[in-house]
Amino acid sequence: MDIYLTRHGETDWNREMKLQGWADISLNEQGREQARRLAARLAGVRFDRAFCSDLDRAAETAEIVLGGRGPAVEPDPRLREMGFGPLEGEPYGDARTNPENPLHGMFVRPDLYKPPFGGEELSFVAARFDSFKKSTLEPLESDPSVRTVLIVAHGIIVREILTLAGGFQYEDFWKLPVGNCSIARLKLEGGKLTIAEMDEKVGHWLI
């Protein structure tokens, strides 16, 4: 089974480098245009099922990509972005270089990051996706009517899925090509996810 995994289009908070997490921020016009360009790239793909995070920016991206030509989009909260609690809405521009920034650990070793003020660890995000995979994706493998699936999610959860499916190291987490509306094609065979192909360029916006 082919799974096309993408990240939502740009929002104003992406542009302003503010942490989004579970905050329900909508696409801006650039994000809608990115989704339209992705729809054109995938115009030849017939999707049998489509899933997205239940946050608006992912749901709208999915609707634009499908353009009314595919199945109804099924929202699932397990596909949400990593939750950052009271840090959501805060700028993260210097988090990679400033050890005093509470997000610094997330940008150095995300697998070891412990949220200082509430929120999720990366392992929680992985557990959410594992639950979705086992209860929703794996049963579709035995359904002959489902060969191609679309999933629209968020920057960190997409990176985590690619890291697990591709066997990447967490030192390379932020180097993975996950810009707004980037695309990766995964294979699900016997319950195991692998990467068949993915975009090559690293996206400008990190979260």
UniProtKB/TrEMBL annotation:
SUPFAM superfamilies: Phosphoglycerate mutase-like
Keyword tags: Hydrolase
Signal peptide: none
Pfam families hit by this protein: His_Phos_1
Name of the protein this chain belongs to: Histidine phosphatase family protein
Organism whose genome encodes this protein: Mesosutterella porci
